[in-house]
């Protein structure tokens, strides 16, 4: 039996490897996962939430370059290396875009950047404010590859940090939906009768409520925030898993191996967890991949409505909300870049779901 199981797994893996788009989607999802975990390592702006604002250079086009003066702060940020890598750097320094500067008699004279042909104000600062009285290392040319948003924040950094929410909401929501869905579906399918009737009534009532409306209601009940959205999305996605598990168990419980397990005196818990569930996981895996994509879209919709991840936290949906009106103002990339990120990640999960469905199809 073990040899046969291993053979089926190897066969499914071989079929999956032959699917180009499935394999491509898998590596793309792994790439996005690595980027989302180590977002602050890759982001040009590694401050917390990539929230370094420069209103003087707001809404600049991709590839925009500017000279940036960093004025060091006297306040030391107490932060570990682990905290900097995974949660961003607590930035106490002041960054100022400048258009020109000169040094005279121990004083740095600089002119603040101003767009649209305007003249920036001229300011001075003593050289001794800088460590070792060295100014050169604090004046650097900065390039914004994706441009800047309406608050003058680096759009590339916001996209990278925003990937964390969109990626991990899939894992949390699918995990919650699997726990509830497999439990409820197993009870309904295995025991039948009144247990099945009650659970199916709950499933049908939950199914009849529009998903986004139900998520909004749960979010408002739990409060606005990061984890609240994750839990709310997960609590609305279990019905699909429960219906699939119920249908599969109704078919599987009449099989000979289940009858043999009952004859050997195994209890219902062991029969369900050790014998039935391992043999019906293929369709559950496929629907989980689809739920990943659905969770990303729901979170983006919530953030667009303003009840998802709250500012200054970066979220692709919130970025579209902030800049959708720029589409008609000649700067559509501000909304299109995060929109394309959502589209590509959702499409990757849908394609890997299709590839898994084909690979796990025994008849195929």
TrEMBL record:
Residue ranges of the TM segments: 20-43, 165-191, 198-220, 226-245, 276-298, 333-356
Protein name, UniProt field: ABC transmembrane type-1 domain-containing protein
Membrane topology according to the record: Multi-pass membrane protein
InterPro entries noted in UniProt: BP-dependent_transpt_permease (IPR050366), MetI-like (IPR000515), MetI-like_sf (IPR035906), OppC_N (IPR025966)
One Pfam family named in its UniProt record: BPD_transp_1
Subcellular location: Cell membrane
Chief place where the protein resides: membrane
Domain ABC transmembrane type-1: 163-353
Keyword annotations: Cell membrane, Membrane, Transmembrane, Transmembrane helix, Transport
């Amino acid at each position: 039996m073990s040899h046969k199981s291993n053979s089926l797994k190897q066969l499914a893996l071989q079929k999956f490897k032959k699917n180009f788009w499935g394999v491509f989607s898998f590596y793309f999802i792994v790439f996005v996962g690595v980027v989302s975990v180590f977002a602050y390592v890759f982001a040009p702006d590694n401050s917390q939430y990539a929230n370094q604002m420069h209103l003087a250079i707001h809404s600049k086009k991709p590839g925009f370059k500017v000279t940036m003066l960093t004025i060091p702060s006297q306040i030391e940020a107490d932060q570990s290396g682990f905290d900097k890598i995974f949660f961003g750097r607590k930035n106490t320094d002041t960054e100022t875009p400048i258009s020109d500067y000169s040094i005279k008699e121990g004083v740095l004279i600089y002119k603040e950047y101003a767009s649209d042909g305007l003249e920036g104000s001229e300011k001075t600062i003593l050289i001794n404010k800088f460590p070792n009285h060295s100014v050169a290392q604090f004046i650097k040319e900065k390039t914004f590859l994706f441009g800047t948003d309406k608050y003058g924040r680096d759009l590339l950094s916001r996209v990278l940090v925003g990937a964390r929410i969109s990626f991990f909401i899939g894992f949390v929501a699918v995990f919650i939906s699997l726990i509830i869905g497999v439990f409820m579906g197993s009870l309904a399918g295995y025991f039948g009768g009144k247990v099945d009737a009650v659970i199916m009534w709950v499933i049908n009532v939950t199914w009849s409520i529009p998903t986004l409306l139900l998520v909004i209601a749960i979010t408002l009940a739990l409060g606005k925030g990061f984890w609240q959205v994750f839990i709310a999305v997960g609590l609305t996605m279990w019905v699909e898993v429960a219906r699939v598990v119920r249908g599969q168990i109704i078919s599987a419980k009449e099989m000979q191996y289940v009858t043999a397990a009952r004859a050997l005196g195994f209890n219902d818990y062991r029969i369900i967890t050790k014998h039935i569930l391992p043999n019906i996981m293929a369709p559950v895996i496929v629907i989980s991949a689809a739920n990943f994509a659905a969770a990303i879209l729901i979170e983006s919709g919530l953030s667009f409505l303003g009840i998802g991840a709250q500012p200054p936290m970066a979220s692709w949906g919130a970025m579209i909300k902030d800049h959708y009106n720029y589409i008609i103002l000649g700067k559509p990339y501000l909304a299109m870049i995060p929109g394309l990120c959502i589209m590509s990640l959702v499409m990757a999960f849908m394609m890997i779901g299709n590839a898994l469905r084909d690979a796990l199809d025994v008849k195929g």
